[in-house]
Every structure is written in structure tokens, then in C-alpha cells.
Write a structure and sequence with these properties.
3 domains; 384 residues; four-stranded parallel β-sheet; Helicase, Ruva Protein, domain 3; mainly alpha; 17 helices; two-stranded antiparallel ribbon; Oxidized Rhodanese, domain 1; elongated; Cyclin A, domain 1; 6 strands
Length: 384
């Protein structure tokens, strides 16, 4: 009974909500009216409240109010689905429904509703791909091998924060947790959904995957929420760093800002130097508390003391020049290095570090293959 007020509090909604809503012109015709009128009758119309004629009128007023009061954005299909949970919970208080929607979008969908949102969407999906590779390299490798990329299925998920995918009762349960997380939390929800479908995905080709997501199987929402929180808590924050994220409460990492232009070409995420140091816990390294294994790919002339540069303690040196390929073009490591990786990497995050100018992303692809080909236990993986 108090969910609407709890959500409003979580979104820090306050002020003269009624006065603000009343002052917005919701009657003058706009260019988006026709699309709004087409979308509303298709939005959660199994629900008696939202499918009523009064529900449709309230839907339209809230959506028009948002479009009019945010001239820097445009109406995209999916905005109706985003407003549905707020309207349902505040059916007799349109001002609060509008205020919650207006606070929700900049927090989780910053710049998603720009007229040209391609850069924002591409970065978001790239981060999603990286997150899949970080937590489940085998699944990421399979999806890549069949060219089943997130652009084919995940845009409606994130553009509507799953409100277009799940029925209202599941959305309420999901958003109860989502509203407590930051802008990266929806990425973990998407990952949790994929992990529920993992067994099916790993045995499916491209066409089967398309069919699977065109009619999404039943998702255990309790498991989805629990897994999302667990994944969120164990993932370094810099792994999900986005340049296009809202500046409010945003994780900042100068060491990651220069890599925005290469996101699409990389198969796994980058981690900040500061977080790597935290994972290594070098003060207690003799007690084996390190949560990461560093693979240093600098060539021998640079490792470890060339130009007064040292090496990270307990790191594994695999010079880039020693990585070869077999007749099929698959990466091959020196046997001794392969054994060393097998012994040292179990249960740890593997981080590839390189000298300036070296292609650590390319080595990342090679090493992921080496791990999978040799059935090694790869927990998660990123670049520095």
C-alpha cells in the first residue's frame, strides 16, 4: 500500500508536485500525439485499471507533460511502458506519477531519449556485452560465434527498464531493488535474465536464439532479483563505467575515459588501476588474499625493470611475442605458462596489463580462447 510513496522517496521526489504538473500545457496538440495514442492501447492492457478509458486519458496527460517539459528529448516508443508502473501506483495522483517518471529517467536512462541516441545506446550495449564476458566467458564466446549480439534483443529491455518485457507484478518486485541501485544495476538484471536462459542459449544457433527472445520464456523474477544483486555486489565498479552516464553520483575514472572510442572492438571490460590495486590487496599478498591475477604481456625487454618500471607482485609474465597460433589460427601459449595460469587463476579475476601502445584487447581475446579451449576455470576477465 505504501510502494508509491517509498518509490517517490527513493527517487527523491519533493516540492510542489501538483503546482508543477498543473502548470504544464497538456492540451495543445503536438507532433507526438499520434504516436502516443497508438502506443497507449498496447501498453499493459491486460490490466483493468490501465486499459480503462480513464487510464488512457491519464496515460496521455502524463506522457504529454513529460514531452512538453523536456524539449531536449523526443518521444521514443517505450516511454509509455516506463510510465505504466508509476501511473498504476499513483492512479489518483497524476502529479506524483509524472514526478516519479521525471526523476527516474535521468537516473537510469540519461540521454536515452535524445533524438540521436545512437552513441548512448551503443555504449550501453557494449558495456552489457563486456559484463557477459566478465562473468560468463563461455556464454559470451558462444553468442559472439553465432553473431547474436545484444542489439538484436536487449534494446527494449533497457529502454523500458524491462517494463515492456515483464508484467506489472514482476516489474514492481524488480524495481523495488532497481531503485536502490545505481545506473549500472539494470545491466546486471539483463545478465541475470541471460543466465537463467544459459543452458538453452549454449545449445542454440542464431535462428533459435531469435525465436527464443521473440517470445521470452517464463523468468523466475525472485531468482532474477537475487542474482542481479549478487552480480552487482561482486563486480568492480569501473567495469561498468560509462561516459554517457548521468553525472549525478557517477563513478569517475580518468584512466578509463580515453577508451570510449574502442568499446565496440573489445570483447571484455577494462578495470581502473585503483580498483585493481584494491583487488590485489598487496599489503597482505603473502596471505594469498588477492582476488585478481595479473597477466603482464610486456615483452621481455620491458619486463620487469626497464626504464625503472617494476612488475606487480605475483603477476604472470606472458610476453606478447611468445603467443603463437596453431594451423587453425587458434592461440597457443608456451606449455609452462599454460600450467602456471591453470594453477594461479582459479577463482580470481584475470587482468591483462600491457605497455603503452600494446594491444591488450587483442591479447584478451586470445587468452579467453586459451582458457575456454583448455577448460580452465575462468571466473571473470578484464583489461587494464
Amino acid at each position: 500500500m505504501l510502494r508509491n510513496e517509498v518509490w517517490a522517496s527513493a527517487l527523491e521526489v519533493d516540492g510542489d508536485l501538483e503546482g508543477t504538473f498543473v502548470a504544464i500545457d497538456k492540451e495543445t496538440p503536438t507532433a507526438t500525439d499520434r504516436q502516443i495514442e497508438v502506443d497507449i492501447p498496447r501498453c499493459h492492457q491486460y490490466d483493468e485499471l490501465l486499459s480503462s478509458s480513464e487510464g488512457h486519458r491519464k496515460f496521455k496527460r502524463i506522457l504529454k507533460a513529460w514531452v512538453v517539459s523536456h524539449p531536449q528529448y523526443v518521444y521514443w516508443q517505450g516511454l509509455d511502458s516506463l510510465s505504466a508502473p508509476f501511473l498504476y501506483l499513483n492512479f489518483n495522483n497524476e502529479a506524483l506519477a509524472y514526478a516519479c517518471l521525471s526523476a527516474f529517467i535521468p537516473k537510469y536512462l540519461h540521454n536515452f531519449f535524445l533524438k540521436d541516441n545512437s552513441a548512448v545506446i551503443q555504449e550501453y550495449l557494449a558495456k552489457f556485452s563486456h559484463l557477459i564476458a566478465f562473468h560468463d566467458p563461455a556464454l559470451a564466446n558462444h553468442l559472439s560465434s553465432i553473431s547474436f549480439v545484444p542489439e538484436l534483443f536487449a534494446i527494449p529491455w533497457f529502454l523500458t527498464m524491462f517494463s515492456h518485457v515483464f508484467p506489472l507484478h514482476k516489474i514492481f518486485h524488480l524495481w523495488d531493488k532497481l531503485l536502490l541501485g545505481d545506473a549500472s544495476f539494470p545491466l546486471f538484471v539483463g545478465l541475470a535474465v541471460l543466465l537463467q536462459l544459459r543452458d538453452t542459449l549454449l545449445t542454440s544457433g542464431f535462428n533459435e536464439c531469435i525465436l527464443l527472445f521473440s517470445d521470452l520464456p517464463e523468468i523466475d523474477i525472485e531468482r532474477c532479483v537475487t542474482d542481479s544483486v549478487d552480480l552487482f555486489c561482486i563486480t568492480p565498479r569501473s567495469v561498468t563505467y560509462r561516459q554517457h552516464e548521468s553525472p549525478i553520483g557517477k563513478f569517475s575514472s580518468d584512466s578509463l575515459r580515453n577508451f570510449g572510442h574502442v568499446l565496440q572492438s573489445e570483447c571484455c571490460p577494462r578495470i581502473s588501476g585503483a580498483e585493481l590495486m584494491d583487488l590485489l590487496d598487496l599489503e597482505h599478498v603473502k596471505f594469498s588474499r588477492s582476488k585478481a591475477l595479473v597477466v603482464d604481456i610486456r615483452n621481455l625487454e620491458e619486463y620487469p625493470f626497464q626504464f625503472n618500471r617494476g612488475a606487480i607482485p605475483e603477476s604472470v609474465s606472458i610476453p606478447f611475442s611468445t603467443i603463437t597460433a596453431d594451423e587453425e589460427g587458434k592461440a597457443v601459449l608456451p606449455p609452462a605458462k599454460l600450467i602456471q595460469l591453470q594453477q594461479c587463476s582459479k577463482g580470481k579475476i584475470v587482468v591483462v596489463v600491457s605497455a603503452r601502445g600494446m594491444n591488450s584487447a587483442e591479447v584478451g581475446v586470445l587468452l579467453i580462447f586459451v582458457f575456454l579451449f583448455n577448460q580452465m576455470s575462468l571466473k571473470s576477465y578484464c583489461l587494464l
